[in-house]
Amino acid sequence: MRREDVQAVSAPPTAGHLRAAELEVFVQQHSQRLLGALTLITGNRATAEDAMQEALLKAWHRRGQPIDQLIAWITVVATNQARSGWRRKQAEQRALDKVGGRATHNTAAASEPDDALLEALRALPERERQVAVMHYVLDQSVAQVAAALGVAEGTVKTQLFRARGHLAARLHVNEHDHQQGGAA
Amino acid sequence: MSLDDELRRRMQAAADRAGAGVNPGAVAQTVAAKAATGPRPSFRLIGGLGAVGVMVGGVIGFTALKPTESAGATAVIVETQRYSLYDCPDGGLRGTALPGDRVYVTGRNEAGDWLELRDPRNQSNSAWVPADAVDPDAIVDVPVVQCNPTIELMASVATSSTTVVDTTTTTAIPETTTTVAPTTVPIAVPITTKPTVPATAPPTVPLTVAPTVAPTVPSTVPSTVPSTAPPTVPPTAPPTLPPDTQKPTVGQVAANPTKIYDSSWSANCASSSVITVSAADNIGVSSVQGTWSGVAGSPKQFVKGAGTTWTLTFGPFSGLASGFNQAVQISIVARDAAGNASTPVNVAVTVNGTCLI
Q1: Topology of domain A114-184, per CATH?
Q2: Chain A within 8 Å of B188 (Cβ-Cβ)?
Q3: Could you tell me the pTM of the whole model?
């Protein structure tokens, strides 16, 4: 999915207040990529699923207030939700695992996992990982990421620069072998 | 292909794999079902500071309102735990927010990982708390502010006799017993006042006069307390002790065991490690905190043990990827009541996502 696709689909909620049909369309069109992005950020599919649902619910409850860039907003809220709910979920997760209540999602089943990339992402500080995923996976511009996180664009640029450097080093990609395309 | 393109291609492919199998219809149905039960109960304000709030929330430590729902500040209430408050992000320890305290979020730092609050012990001062203690919604809504530590000369008074427990219901003001020096009546007349704020009822002052006292009270003894009279605070001499500038010290750090595993694998695999430190200070260590990155739960306070010993249970962690294998550096800092922080001391515990027995 390219950046213009994301913007086109999320444009109606951006322009005004979220409506039920728009939320449904958003879920239909973005849930796989969004869930994947959240899984990369949180490192856990089950946590990402719960966080995405909570964020969508919050978006629904805020339907009286306009939300700029819905996909970025949901990513940020879901990441925060995952972070804050981590400890709460631990006991429940352990219990469910013991009785087999939650299906185990083997994300590697579909195709060969990019272990090196996952390992490199996991090694990033959380905020760098979040910024990198929002930018590279969700095709959010620096300005959009900054707006969603409520920080200055320079802060996002710095974090993105560091994330890119860390990823390049861990993936053994020589940054100088590539022509940089720019972060914005 | 540029590095950005390479990263974009691989990360989007990884995300698509990670998100494969999701059922959008089921997600939408789940959200709709939850939405049908109504909005999550939240802590509501009527008016601005000092209004009545009702809290039912579902967050870790604080529940927050949106700034638009109050008078320029987000009201939060401390729920089940106590939280340390700091002068500034990563600054000195300022005090503690206790369960039941109502505080107001007034801003955040640029990185969004610390929030500025009104100090619940002295609402005219600000304090900072790590953002992960607060409802995540507040993080994106409050304005960015710079840390401007407030000089608190009467900290001891603010935390004892004039503690404002909850300005929304009753303002607790200690009983004040005034002994009036004898003038025309040769005995002391104790006056017990119980001021109430706001002055909805006339603040009458019961006079207790000994039977032998003349029936007229001297004019120098006021029979009523003006409703605008501020609560009387016993005069307190300013502290004359020199400020405590000596840092605490942390020594003898130990982790047992030094390698732990995802708790969901097996009960036979250690899923938590006990970190033990000894911390000392010329006045006294008020808190010891461990911070780390790479796994959840940071920062976390150590628990005071016997003597100078403080302990922290690191872990358990669940839901880690099977390939997770990381030596987590736990940075330990001790603080005293004056806010002096020790030099950080590190200890490493390896966290593994897989435990093969």
Answers
A1: Arc Repressor Mutant, subunit A (1.10.10)
A2: no
A3: 0.39
